[in-house]
Amino acid sequence: QVQLVESGGGVVQPGRSLRLSCVASGFTFRNFGMHWVRQAPGKGLEWVAVIYYDGSNSYYADSVKGRFTISRDNSKSTIYLHMNSLRAEDTAVYYCARDRSRWTDWWGQGTLVTVSS
Amino acid sequence: QSVLTQPPSVSAAPGQKVTISCSGSSSNMGNNFVSWYRQFPGAAPEVLIYDNDKRPSGIPDRFSGSKSGTSATLGITGLQTGDEADYYCGTWDSSLIVLFGGGTKLTVL
Q1: Which of B2, B33, B47 sits opposite A104 (nearest CB)?
Q2: What is residue A32's three-state secondary structure?
């Protein structure tokens, strides 16, 4: 059974950094691209970033470009989201999701990031 | 605002049919497939439709999808109270960036 488990969320002050992790199981991780998608409280889904199956390419939403970095370690079946210069508007539940070339089929349960002083 | 436009809310009675629209542009929906997601409160999204009109295994045929040009539609027949949720459309754009619609809240009256 496919499983995605996010961790690393918490309360962080504006301007600080945080790293999220997403551990995958139940499938051949190195064969799939992976996404981060976030959802601010009471708001809709906002795509954040995608990384190719082999880590060769990644793309970002304009709202996080230059501040966030997506990476992966295929030996650990894990993707990461390194978030720098955090802002109040980055407060959200962050989901990781498996890519199926144009859509996402499995999602984790999310980890909450709160940016507040 | 989201690049993909959805109505904020739709409603219909149990047993009836409802459609949810999603409007984009030639740089995104016009040249790429559309997917649809359902999200219950407090839960992660789940895919209902992919590649415009395909259903993953386990999704009943009460759910259907279509696309024409730069617009897509999700249809749900035989509405049940358990269908009350938020629904999102998604696609890619020419910059290989994923886009989601703003979401539509479905109420089954």
Answers
A1: B47
A2: coil
- Cα B21 from chain centroid? 7
User: SS3 sequence, chain B?
Assistant: CCCEECCCEEEECCCCCEEEEEECCCCCHHHCCCEEEEECCCCCCEEEEECCCECCCCCCCCEEEEEECCEEEEEECCCCHHHCEEEEEEEECCCCCEEEECCEEEEEC
DSSP-derived secondary structure for A74-98: TTTTEEEEEE-S--GGG-EEEEEEE
Is a pLDDT exceeding 80 seen at residue A1? yes
Nearest CB to B45; choose among A59, A60, A107? A107
CB-based contact B87:B38 (threshold 8 Å): yes
pLDDT in tens, B26-46: 889 988 999 999 999 999 999
User: A105, B96: Cβ pair inside 8 Å?
Assistant: no
Across the interface, whether the CB atoms of B47 and A108 are under 8 A apart is answered no
Q: What average pLDDT does range A45-70 have in this prediction? A: 96
Q: Which residues pair with A43 in a beta bridge?
A: none
Closest by CA to A108, choosing from A2, A5, A26, is A5
- DSSP for A106-117, written as a single string: EE---EEEEE--
Taking a C-beta distance cutoff of 8 angstroms, is the pair B18, B10 a contact?
yes
